[in-house]
Amino acid sequence: MATAGEAASPAAGSGGGRRRRVLLFPVPFQGHLTPMLQLAGALHARGGGGLGVTVFYAAFNAPDPARHPAAFRFVPVGEGVPSADLLPSGSDADFAVALLRLNDRLREPFRDRLRQALAEEEEEEGGGAAACLVVDSNLRGMQLVAEELGVPTLVLRTGAAACLVAYMAFPALCDKGLLPPASQDKAQLDMPLDELTPLRLRDMVFSPTTTHGNMERCLQHLLDAARSSSGVILNTFQDLEDSDLQKITNGLGVPMYTVGPLHKISSGTESSLLAQDQTCLKWLDKQEADSVLYVSLGSLASMDEKELLETAWGLANSQSPFLWVIRHNMVRSSHQVSLPEGFEEATHGRGMVVPWAPQQEVLAHHAIGGFWTHNGWNSTLESICEGVPMICRPQFADQMINMRYVQEVWKIGFELEGGLERGKVEMAITKLLCTEEGRQMRQRAKDLRDKAVKCIEDEGSSKSAIDLLLKRIMSF
Ligand code: UDP
């Protein structure tokens, strides 16, 4: 969305011909790292030779500089900082605590690195002075360091606009005594939230393993980061989330740049932390159009052994072709994932299991007819942008919110609710791939895909927002 009062203009060369450098600091989880690096790629490409890029990164979960433009500088932060408890995984994972710790532990090392980077840039001829820091909205600690050293900040929200609107409403729901919910009673949890339609109270309980207090602190930091920034950048597009974007503009009081879908705008960046199995694309080539179910829970969500078993037999019994991502750490309390005996024979020739897939290419493949997803925002957006309808199985954080929009607002998928049972899995797959209802969801998803394509055309809303953002960066 264009900032009020600004007009779109070609961005390259703005800033009076001065060379500038944009600094970026992503959260070191796959779903956050990817859009930040895509943003870097988009800005770099659009900025021509006028914009340098420096990426600060947590030394664990490091991106690979070789897979990015040679002009990008990569600066590690916090080598030697203990990181085992910074990577949430397993059934008791506490994401809020991981983010709070990340801020605490990386703040001091970042101060040193940023000081150093600023000093080097002063010394360097033509290297480009740092214009600003684009920081993930969960890294309030790094933003405070930048403020201290006089570097302006922009904030990247890697989630949906709907999610930010829900986070903005969180403090008021606490003040009203609605959060945390007074009981686990179904009627109570299903209570619709009038100003956040189609969300229910249960969709605002972001994780069963995070305390309300930690969630409150995390969201407060996030809102502080957004409000004290020089602008918020969102990886979504105007035609998808128009009314929520409007609510953010009215509620935050800072400029907003709606630049998504970033994976369709950015080229030359590839940031997968795990090796992608490319052979599945060849396998997909042999399948019929719209026939294959792609199953993936993203980089952090998990299931227990019983759920793995029920999923396996649900897939087998559905008789539909499938491509299933089973990440090395996807099954809780199991070091080695074993599929049930007889599964391979039952699915021979129509199923493929891989440890990690080139997801964007998979979703873009004509053979894919549906996506069983945990509804992380990147996966949801990637699915929308390829016109692929979804079976939704959200687990934590913003995933429930994304699922509600997929099911109730865009009507391009449905939730697979309750305990996982093979019969329910089979029915859900059949509904998505083989019924008129599923076909209509696919059609609506394809209509949204067409809107996404328009947004990233030259005069489209997201392309114009990238230009405005670049202009803003060059103006600092
Ligand atoms: N992804 C991938 N290969 C896979 C599964 C996921 O490349 O086999 C990518 C996917 O394209 C997406 C990201 O990992 O960009 C996951 O982000 P998302 O926000 O969906 O979920 P998270 O991992 O943060 O829970």
Automatic annotation (TrEMBL):
<protein>
    <recommendedName>
        <fullName>2,4-dihydroxy-7-methoxy-2H-1,4-benzoxazin-3(4H)-one 2-D-glucosyltransferase</fullName>
        <ecNumber>2.4.1.202</ecNumber>
    </recommendedName>
</protein>
<dbReference type="InterPro" id="IPR002213">
    <property type="entry name" value="UDP_glucos_trans"/>
</dbReference>
<keyword id="KW-0328">Glycosyltransferase</keyword>
<dbReference type="GO" id="GO:0080043">
    <property type="term" value="F:quercetin 3-O-glucosyltransferase activity"/>
</dbReference>
<comment type="function">
    <text>Glucosyltransferase involved in the last step of benzoxazinoid glucoside biosynthesis. Catalyzes the glucosylation of hydroxamic acids utilizing UDP-glucose as glucose doner, reducing the toxicity of these natural insecticides for storage. Can use DIMBOA and DIBOA as substrates, HMBOA (2-hydroxy-7-methoxy-2H-1,4-benzoxazin-3(4H)-one) and HBOA (2-hydroxy-2H-1,4-benzoxazin-3(4H)-one) with a lower efficiency, but not indole acetic acid or quercitin.</text>
</comment>
<dbReference type="Pfam" id="PF00201">
    <property type="entry name" value="UDPGT"/>
</dbReference>
<dbReference type="GO" id="GO:0080044">
    <property type="term" value="F:quercetin 7-O-glucosyltransferase activity"/>
</dbReference>
<dbReference type="GO" id="GO:0047254">
    <property type="term" value="F:2,4-dihydroxy-7-methoxy-2H-1,4-benzoxazin-3(4H)-one 2-D-glucosyltransferase activity"/>
</dbReference>
<keyword id="KW-0808">Transferase</keyword>
<comment type="similarity">
    <text>Belongs to the UDP-glycosyltransferase family.</text>
</comment>
